[in-house]
Design goal:
Blueprint lengths: L5 E10 L2 E11 L3 E6 L6 H8 L7 E6 L2 E2 L5 H11 E4 L11 H11 L4 H14 L15 H13 L5 E5 L7 H17 L3 E6 L2 H4 L4 E6 L2 E4 L1
Parallel strand pairs: 3-8, 3-9, 6-7, 7-8
Antiparallel strand pairs: 1-2, 1-4, 4-5, 9-10
C-alpha cells in the first residue's frame, strides 16, 4: 500500500511555557483535502507553519513525499517549499510594488519559468479568482477581498503538490468565498495534491473530504 503524501506525527509546540499543540497526528494521501477547524488561538496557523517548515516543532516529525521537513536544513526546506508548496496566508503577503500579474507570477519566476509561461498561467489563475482585467492593477488599488484572491491565485499558479490554506475566505463575500473554496478543492483533485484548509467556518470545512477539530489535546475527527 502506498504511504501518505503528508505525514504529521506527534507534533508538539510550546510558547512561553504554554502548550499550544500536543501530539498532533494527521496523514493525508494524494488527492485528499482535509479541514482543521478550531477556535482562534488554538494553534491552527502554528500547525500550518510547522508543516511548511516556517516554524520549528518542539516534538514530532513532518514528512512530505518521503522528505522529513522537520529534519531538513533551512536551504533544503526553502527549495522544497518553492517547488512543491502553495501557501495562502491570512495576511496576504502581496508585494505592494508589484502588479497583480507580477505578484501571481512570482513563484514561477523564482522557479525559472519563461515569461510566456508565466503570463499564460498568471492570466488563467487571475481569471479563475474573478479578477480578469485587473492584471496590471497595483495592490493599493484593490480591496481586502481582492487582495485575498490575488494571494490565492499566487499560491495555486505553480500547481503545488501541497496546498496549505489559512482562513482563505476570511475577507471574501459569500459568492467569492464559494468560488475560492471550489477552486482550492478542484486544484487538490486535479493535480493529486494534498490539501489542508484551516478555518473557523463549518461551511468551508464541509467542502473537504475529512474534517478535524484542533484542541489542546490534539486533533479529533468530526
Amino acid at each position: 500500500m502506498r504511504g501518505p503524501m503528508l505525514d504529521i506525527a506527534g507534533i508538539g509546540k510550546r510558547f512561553g511555557g504554554r502548550s499550544v499543540l500536543t501530539s498532533v497526528n494527521l496523514r493525508i494521501a494524494a488527492g485528499e483535502y482535509v479541514a482543521v477547524v478550531g477556535e482562534s488561538g488554538v494553534g491552527k496557523s502554528t500547525l500550518l507553519n510547522i508543516v511548511a517548515g516556517l516554524e520549528t516543532a518542539d516534538s514530532g516529525t513532518v514528512s512530505f513525499l518521503d522528505n522529513e521537513i522537520t529534519a531538513l536544513a533551512d536551504d533544503a526546506r526553502t527549495v522544497l517549499r518553492r517547488e512543491n508548496f502553495g501557501f495562502v496566508f491570512q495576511a496576504f503577503h502581496v508585494l505592494p510594488h508589484l502588479t497583480v500579474r507580477q505578484n501571481v507570477g512570482l513563484p514561477l519566476l523564482l522557479r525559472g519559468f519563461t515569461q510566456g509561461q508565466i503570463r499564460t498561467r498568471a492570466k488563467n489563475l487571475i481569471a479563475s479568482v474573478g479578477l480578469s482585467g485587473r492584471e496590471e492593477s497595483m495592490p493599493r488599488e484593490l480591496s481586502g477581498g481582492e487582495l485575498q484572491r490575488v494571494a490565492i491565485a499566487r499560491a495555486l499558479v505553480g500547481e503545488p503538490k501541497l496546498i496549505l490554506a489559512d482562513e482563505p475566505t476570511g475577507n471574501l463575500d459569500q459568492e467569492n468565498a464559494r468560488q475560492v473554496l471550489a477552486l482550492l478543492r478542484d486544484q487538490v483533485k486535479a493535480h493529486g495534491a494534498a490539501g489542508i484548509l484551516v478555518t473557523h467556518s463549518e461551511a468551508a470545512a464541509a467542502t473537504c473530504d475529512r474534517r478535524y477539530r484542533l484542541t489542546s489535546a490534539g486533533l479529533a475527527p468530526l
